[in-house]
TrEMBL record:
Residues 382-476 form the Glycine dehydrogenase C-terminal domain. Residues 197-304 form the Aminotransferase class V domain. It catalyses: N(6)-[(R)-lipoyl]-L-lysyl-[glycine-cleavage complex H protein] + glycine + H(+) = N(6)-[(R)-S(8)-aminomethyldihydrolipoyl]-L-lysyl-[glycine-cleavage complex H protein] + CO2. Signal peptide: none annotated. This is glycine dehydrogenase (aminomethyl-transferring). It comes from Siculibacillus lacustris. InterPro entries: Aminotrans_V_dom, GDC-P_C, GDC_P, PyrdxlP-dep_Trfase, PyrdxlP-dep_Trfase_major, PyrdxlP-dep_Trfase_small. One of its GO terms (cellular component) is glycine cleavage complex. Its EC number is 1.4.4.2.
Length: 522
């Protein structure tokens, strides 16, 4: 019998005890898996966990905006509040907990060195309203990040103020709209491939463009001939993702750029997947006029939670003059913040102010730390390793899972479809839920929409071969279980998560966003 170092048995002494179902507990807890009521049920709105002196009388200044009812927050002591949020954090999957294969969103490791740099005094405590004369170092850092981005993309200018990728996308398309207007052209149509990110048509429509779809070819790419066929005198731009959302580098991207330029339009590139090509190819060299960059995807700043974010947009010579305010201009090594139209130089014709303040300083600092710690060769290797990881998983799984586009090598992510599940009774969603039981966040499911039952996996460059091998072995085991008739393993999953499978459609359509005190029992 195995013994631990205290000399006690380290497993039950009988087979019966080993196979017995675990008994319930009085608390509902299961060791470190702690059950907890809602925070409103733990605390009471009519109490406080902190002793505060009564406020002195003060003249009301809020008028009709004054609160008319109590705040209604539960009163908790500090230990209760800390325990509540720690327990919640343990229920959330994260890149710090394990491999995060979410395709298209690039859940890569955020080096702790970057976090340390972002907390340096002078960066972490910059206030947006303090005089710019007091923050020359912050402006210089913003200028340096912008210099790296223009060099890596082969572009002429950069707007650092957008707060997220979609915001940068908006900035780039507004620059295109301003450029068309400055040339006196009425070109209200934007071409958008069917495989594009959903934000692409939404952004174009939001600023008054008419969206015209371009079909994807059978191999998942966009053909230059199809683009030319869709172009007429009303087309002013195309929005194309490269590498595209199927994880494929567009082979005819230069020809597509040439076609749109010949028609007098502009080429907007969705830079969401720039992390696959950094140091390998510069988008400006194949004809891109504007491209946003997700700092969280390519340069390891934190991702998710609605912020804080940063989505700089780089602009070609054709659009550089239209960069929005505010922006940083570097002259003779000195960084200056240009905030007002009267501060612009000859040739600078910004289309207006995109945002109240310049950007998210913490994101710029983290991205710059990542750039400096890697250097040019390290950034290139990160791209190469991301592509290698995706193609390694492709090689490990393509004999048991089905590839919708087998004729193109994968870039930073590999796309499978659900044909291998045909006849098993197991759906794509069932497969994803079973991954949760195995301790993995599911890959992106059902996207891109051009592939039925899509399963998009992006391992990133952060994972070791051992981590990829275990992940691949897990998926293979799930495939064998599904094709071997063990459908119960999937339809009942997840079994081991804090909560079982939810009615996600109902939760999305009828969310409960407010806690109401239950009626007293009769």
């Amino acid at each position: 019998m195995p013994m631990n170092d205290q000399g006690r048995p380290s497993r039950p002494t009988s087979a019966a005890a080993e196979t017995a179902a675990p008994r319930g507990t009085f608390t509902g807890n299961r060791a470190l898996d702690l059950e907890e009521a809602l925070i409103f049920e733990i605390g009471r709105p009519d109490t406080s966990g902190v002793d505060l002196p009564a406020p002195s009388a003060a003249k009301a200044r809020l008028g009709s905006l004054a609160r008319k009812a109590p705040l209604g927050l539960p009163g908790l002591s500090e230990p209760e509040a800390v325990r509540h949020y720690v327990r919640l954090s343990r229920r959330n999957y994260s890149i710090d907990a394990g491999l995060y294969p979410l395709g298209s969103c690039t859940m890569k490791h955020n080096p702790r060195l970057n976090e340390k740099m972002a907390r340096l005094a002078g960066f972490s405590d910059v206030h947006p309203l303090q005089p710019t004369s007091t923050v020359p170092g912050a402006l210089e850092l913003i200028g340096e990040v912008g210099r790296w981005l223009t060099e890596l993309t082969g572009m002429a200018a950069v707007a650092m103020s957008p707060k997220a990728g979609a915001h940068g996308e908006l900035a780039g398309m507004m620059a295109i709209k301003a450029a068309l207007k400055a040339r006196g052209l009425d070109k209200p149509v934007v071409l958008v491939p069917e495989s594009a990110h959903g934000t692409n048509p939404a952004t174009a429509a939001a600023i008054g463009f008419e969206v015209r779809a371009v079909p994807a070819r059978a191999d998942g790419t966009v053909g230059a001939a199809d683009v030319r066929a869709a172009i007429d005198e009303r087309v002013g731009a195309i929005m194309l993702t490269n590498p595209n959302t199927c994880g494929i580098f567009e082979p005819e991207v230069a020809e597509i750029a040439a076609a749109i330029h010949e028609a007098g339009g502009y080429f907007y590139c969705d830079g969401a997947n720039f992390n696959a090509i950094v140091g390998k190819v510069r988008p400006g060299d194949f004809g891109v006029d504007a491209m946003h960059i997700n700092l969280h995807k390519t340069f390891s700043t934190p991702h998710g939670g609605g912020g804080p974010g940063a989505g700089p947009v780089v602009l070609s010579e054709r659009l550089a003059a239209f960069a929005p305010l505010p922006f940083v201009r570097v002259t003779d090594g000195e960084a200056v913040l240009v905030e007002n139209p009267e501060d612009t130089a000859d040739g600078e014709t910004p289309y207006g102010r995109l945002t109240a303040f310049h950007g998210q300083m913490g994101m710029f600092t983290r991205a710059y730390a990542y750039m400096l710690s890697h250097g040019a060769d390290g950034l290139r290797q990160a791209s190469e390793d991301a592509v290698l990881s995706a193609n390694y998983l492709r090689a490990c799984l393509s004999d048991v899972m089905t590839l919708p586009f087998p004729d193109h090598p994968s870039m930073h992510e590999v796309l499978f479809d659900d044909r291998f599940l045909d006849g098993t009774g197991v759906t794509t969603l069932d497969f994803a839920k079973a991954m949760i039981d195995e301790g993995y966040h599911p890959m992106t499911m059902y996207f891109p929409l051009v592939v039925h039952g899509a399963m998009l996996i992006e391992p990133t460059e952060s994972e070791s071969k051992a981590a990829l091998d275990l992940f691949a072995a897990t998926l293979r085991d799930l495939v064998f279980a599904a094709t071997g008739g063990d459908s119960e393993r999937f339809t009942g999953a997840p079994r081991f998560a804090p909560r079982r499978r939810l009615d996600e459609t109902r939760a999305a359509r009828s969310p409960k966003l407010r806690w109401d005190k239950p009626a007293a029992a009769e």
